[in-house]
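[job 0412] stage=fold_complex status=start
inputs:
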Amino acid sequence: MTKLLVVEDDFMDSRLICDILKAQGLTFHYAKDGIEAIDMARKMLYDLILMDIKLPRMDGIETTRIIKNMTNYKKVPVIALTAYALEGDKERFLAAGLDDYISKPFDISDMIKKLEKYCSHDQ
Amino acid sequence: MIKMISNLLFQQKKTERSNEAIVEMAKESEEHFHSIIQSANDAIITADSKGDIIFWNNGAQNLFGYRDEEVKGKNLTFLIPERYRDAHQKGMERLLSTGVPHFIGKTVELWGLRKDGSEVIIELSLSTWKTGDKVFYSGILRDITERKYLEKLHLENERLAYASKAKNDFLSNMSHELRTPLNAVLGFSELLKMKKVGNLTEKQEEYVDNIRYGGRHLLNLISDILDFSKIDAGKMELVIENISVPETLNKSIVMVEEIAKKNAVSLKEELDPELEFIEADKQRFTQIIFNLLSNAIKFNKKKGGTVTVTTKTEGDMARFSVSDTGIGIKEEDKNKLFKDFEQLDSGISRKYEGTGLGLAITKKLVEMHGGKIWVDSEFGVGSTFTFLLPKKANKGEKNT
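[job 0412] stage=fold_complex status=done
writing structure:
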């Protein structure tokens, strides 16, 4: 079973992701900001992280950088969820260690495809 | 006795010689320092405690235009623009009475008055010394007109960069803010449509479709407005690469297949086999073609219309055309076409929906590549939008 961590601060967006993941039969843990995410990532090794970029206190890019530097997290894929869609943003994300990028508003079938891709490495 | 006299004479000669040597040394030293002062680029002026000029070097002559004979013994005030003389006087008086200098040992900026009446901005470095009970002032002055100009430019550049960054941040933030609520609208309505939370009656499904339709339209509007703002603000950069013409065209065609089918419009391709590659921004090129294609489909015959995509190599240019069998465009409307926010007839525009920005953006994107776009049309028969792009682009093209 893929251990999935979702980091998202917006109320509506978190409800939406929740329902999409549930509809796919995926279970997950949830953090509402970067600090909480880092804490949870430390306590348990996740297989996949969905990271909202615009987070309060510490943004998603910084959070990703910190998590990716933690032991065992180098190979764990982190997918950015973001409404930022200007050029240069994608490069910024990839440079910070994000492995992929799902833009908001979600294209649900695209999101499902990506989830299947990253969740398919089931041990 | 003679020995004593000859000794004395010898001593005298020795003293004379060492006196000569001392005088020689003094002369050399004097010449040395004199040369330093006269060859210096900066103006060096010395004055007595009253402010009367004692010494005036070549640099001072170059700076103010007066020769040494014209200024010796005169008071410094003539070098100061009239409006500042009062303040200068007061400063000198204070100096004489308190002995406390205002800006000795510091560097100050002030205005000077030249012989020809023009003013010059000067940096002054002032020092003082005492000989016996007499006080002297020495000033080193430098024309800093150029430095001031560069400082101003630098400040202006900083200000512009800051304003530009603020605007960019605004665009970036707006992009984010506008897309966020749409996520809820489109996401939840899509989940409904996918029947992931239960089945839908026909009427419910219709309502859901309406919500998605409105949401999609809003999303297109936002994208277009942001694109347009970006181009307008000069913030759009093209990523030029070698792209395959048939491959990229096919991608765009696939993207419009569904709406073509819905509108019963058939899509045709007439690709020049000689036109394989061009240097362009892949995303923007796709956007141009997609925009022309969706217009051609939208503004086509109700049923049985055709949209044809043609490519042709023309020397060092590549020509692309998208034609439709639609209502065509009246001659007088042709130049309104590429302007922002004008759809030709607001009655029609409501029916055909669209942002009104599509062609304006397309035109700008074509022009950013160094190309040209225009339309040929026969009212009631159809229209053909044609654009030319240079096959080899200027690398790293930024729009102006």
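[job 0412] summary: The domain at 3-119 of chain A is CATH 3.40.50.2300 (Rossmann fold).
[job 0412] exit 0
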